[in-house]
Every structure is written in C-alpha cells, then in structure tokens.
Amino acid sequence: MAASTMVGVSSSLHTRATPAHGVVLTPAGPVAVLPGLRLSASGKLRKQERKLESEFVPAFTARIVTQKTRNSSPAAGERVRVMSVRSAASNPDQLRAAREDVKKLIAEKKCNPILIRLAWHDSGSYDKNISEWPKRGGANGSIRFSPELAHGANAGLINAVKLLEPIKEKYPDISYADLYQLASATAIEEAGGPKIPMKYGRVATKGPEECAIEGNLPDAGPPDPSDHLRKVFYRMGLNDQEIVALSGAHTLGRSRPERSGWGKQETKYTVGENIGAPGGQSWTVQWLKFDNSYFKDIKAQSDEDLLVLPTDKILTEDPEFKKYTDKYAEDEAAFFKDYALAHAKLSELGAKWDPEGGFSIDEEPKNEPVPEKFVAAKYSSEE
Ligand code: HEM
C-alpha cells in the first residue's frame, strides 16, 4: 500500500465539506478524500465513493498550491492525506462579487436602511443563555422564513428579503445568514459610515422549524424604556455603550405607521425624488447619510418632523446612556469607531461558523501556502 502523502492546501480553498472530509485538486479535477478512500485510475473517486463525493461536496472551488513532501500529483490508487482543509458556509469570491451587486442595488433603490434592519432583526433574536444552535437565535438567516417574518417586530422586512433574493440566486454558494449581514455592513459603508470589520462563514438555518421565538426584539414604547433596553440587549450579551452606539443606526431610515405603528405618514424630509419609496418619519434630516446627526437630533428634539421614539429619548435621560449620547453627539469619529465594533459584534451574535472562527473577505488570499491546523488527519490512512 502506498504511503500517505501530505498535500498542502491553500487558504483560499473553500468547500461545503465538513471539516472531517477533505478535498484535493488532482490533475483529473477536485476529489473528495474521505476516511480510507483512494483515488481511482482516472483520478476520480471510485463508483461506491461517488455517492459520498456528491453528498458531502456539492460545490466547491479548490486549489492545491503546494505539495510539501513530494514533487508530483497524487497517483491513481494512492491514498492522499489531506493536511489542511478549509470548508466554508460561503464562498469568499462569491461574497466579494455579491458585495458589488449589493452596492448596485443600494444605488438604485436607496434601500440601505431596510437592509440594515433586516440583518439586525436576524441577529437580535439571540439569547446568550441558550447554547444550542439555532435555538439560541442570532445571525442564522431564519428571518427569511414566514413564521419569523410574520413576527410583529418584523413588519415590512419581507421587502428586504425580496430585494436580496436575486443576489442569493446569482450566488448560491453564499449562506443567507452571511448575505444578510454582508448587505447590512455594505449599506452602512455605502451611506458614508465606517468600515465594519466583518467576518463571514455563518451557517444558515434550513427550514421554518428553526425560526427564532417571537418577543426577543425591543419594543419602541415599553413602560420603562431603560430597563427594557437593558433586559433585551444584555440578553444578547451587549452593554450600555453598545446599546447607544447601535441605536445610532437610526441616523438612517424611517418609521412607517403601517409597519411598526410609529411615526408619521410622511414629513417634508420623506417625500421627493431619489429616496426610494416615499413616506414615513425619519430620525434625521439626511436619513440616507450615515453620520452622528441622530445623537444631535434626539438631544435637541426641536423638529416636529423628526422622530424620537421613547427608546431614543431615554438615551438622553438615563445617566449611563446619556454619557455615550453626549460623547457621540460631540465626536463623530468616536461614534464611528464604536459603531463599527458594535455592528460587527451584533452581526456575529449566535452564529455557527464554518470554518471555525469565520473568515474575512477584505484581504485577497496570498498566493503562497499557509500552514494550517490539520483537521482531517485522524480520518486519513496511516498505513
Ligand atoms: C434600541 C432599540 C430599538 C428599537 C426600539 C427600534 C425600533 C425601530 C422602529 C419602531 C423602527 C421603524 C420600523 C418601521 O416602521 O418600518 C425602526 C427602524 C429602523 N431601525 Fe430600529 N430600533 C432599535 C434598534 C436598532 C438597531 C440596534 C439598529 C441597527 C443596528 C436599528 C436599525 C434600524 C433602521 C436602519 C431602521 C429604518 C428601517 C427603514 O427605514 O426601513 N434599530 N427601529
């Protein structure tokens, strides 16, 4: 029997295979390597092994960039030991391409606000006291299923789901969970906000039975707003400073009475050209521009055409919240810095990662071998 062969695999390798399985690119094309499997003469898997190939590796892009211990490709019949495998819930190249499509969608539809709200309502169902995924809620794409879309808090978000559907169809190797968070971070950045240090690889829920329970998102008019905000956001593992920073997302968008029950039918700031569908009441004058005007406006409360929800107002009254509201109204750079970190944290709540720990799409993979932890070793042949 041929000795095991170590095959280095680039960090750009991404598959839907689980970490227990490997994929190598042979001269005959990409091949799944499973416990004890061997390559056939053609370089493809043998008949009985094909089933496993299609079952575990429905789509992937793979590239061997180095073979540390040999100079030639694996030979037919030879056992291949995969040194390192990166599997992913989403394909990084497709994520990058989808980001460009999201930018075009935003330029055309001016839909930044609702894309941000969609992602926040997907992740905001998270309960840090529950360890089981997806029962714990969070950024898992479950908001696309009708039981969750029908939650009172999600009224209107079906429009955002629909807007992103063509992009999902075009890039099938992106998980819904990643797509929603990608669209939101892109929407912040395209509105002039900070660069969000995002990572990707969120596994998505597969069916309506995996939806979040209703009631985990905040109410805009609870009896005790500060107590309510703390209960809801602490349950997600977020703190006072993050509550205030994230509320700053209301610098974008509008409230519509027919959706949430809050806000005016329209104001002088929500009619006119180039604003997407008109109507509703905004928190700020330039509600398609991300800046710190939300904090200035909720402090001033001087314009009847601008919205201040009870949960916005409390940020100017509760001493701990007010500390941050004052700071962000004064110092936009401080707001941008804190917002970017809080948004990234929000986008990761409850996520199950594949690969473990997620990955960034902001740096192109370097064209050189990256030694990685050996995940498939225990399944490979040692004879
Ligand atoms: C602090 C507790 C929060 C409450 C009570 C709250 C409440 C609301 C309400 C009532 C609306 C109007 C929805 C409609 O009628 O269509 C809204 C819109 C919005 N919310 Fe929040 N929100 C909160 C936090 C957040 C957070 C953390 C984010 C994002 C990080 C966010 C982002 C948005 C955006 C962008 C919109 C505008 C949506 C659009 O124009 O379609 N909100 N929010």
Can you give keywords for this protein?
383 residues, mainly alpha, Peroxidase, domain 1, 2 domains, two-stranded parallel ribbon, two-stranded antiparallel sheet, 12 helices, 8 strands, globular, disordered N terminus, disordered C terminus, binds protoporphyrin IX containing FE
In words, what does this structure look like?
Belongs to the peroxidase family. Ascorbate peroxidase subfamily. Keywords: Oxidoreductase. By secondary structure, this protein is mainly α. The chain has two domains: 1-88 and 366-383, no CATH class; 97-348, Peroxidase, domain 1 (Orthogonal Bundle). It is built from twelve helices and eight strands. The strands form four sheets. It has a two-stranded parallel ribbon. It has a two-stranded antiparallel ribbon with strand order 2-5. A two-stranded antiparallel ribbon has the order 3-4. Helix 8 (240-247) crosses helix 11. The protein is globular. The model is unreliable at 1-71, 79-86 and 368-383 (pLDDT under 50). Bound molecules: protoporphyrin IX containing FE. Protoporphyrin IX containing FE (HEM) binds at residues 113-114, 116-117, 120, 156, 218, 220, 229, 246-247, 249-250, 252-256, 259-260, 262, 309, 311.
Q: With helices defined by DSSP (H or I, 4 residues minimum), what is the helix count?
A: 12
Helical fraction equals 25-40%
Low-pLDDT residue intervals, each spanning 5 or more residues: 1-71, 79-86, 368-383
CATH architecture descriptor name of the largest domain: Orthogonal Bundle
CATH class descriptor of the largest domain:
Mainly Alpha
Pfam families: peroxidase
Enzyme class: oxidoreductase
InterPro entries: Ccp1-like (IPR044831), Haem_peroxidase (IPR002016), Haem_peroxidase_sf (IPR010255), Peroxidase_I (IPR002207), Peroxidases_heam-ligand_BS (IPR019793)
GO molecular function, one term: L-ascorbate peroxidase activity
